[in-house]
Amino acid sequence: MELTGEDAETVSEEFAAFRFGREAETLALGEPDEDFFRNLVRGVPHRQEEIDGAITKCLASNWRLSRVDSILRAILRCGAFELIGRADVPAKVVIDEYVELSYAFFSGDEPAFVNAALDKLAHRKRAAEFGETPPGDEF
Question: Mind listing the domains of the chain with CATH numbers?
Fold first, then answer.
């Protein structure tokens, strides 16, 4: 959406009409959860300022989110949205799914980058899931 300028509703409708339910994809990936997808597509831009701030605090001090590749940035934003806004999905599942997704697009260090950033965010936002005390400087 960042690259095309399309809004969440347009993207959701396009996926529902032309991408979901394709037999080859369904066999490989299983049935899509359209409600979950719509929540993700709507939720990320709605909470983007909060999400970007949280991701930025998980990056090395010399990194800016704007420097990150656009696909990698989208992966991080979606993963961060789930960690921040979808407590029904375990943090470890979120991290694993987005690291796996990053392998579909990248063969270098990017999956490790996704793992490190989302793991750091998960330990901050969902400390209890890791048996930890939430940090006092929550972001």
Answer: 1-33 (no CATH), 47-129 (1.10.940.10)
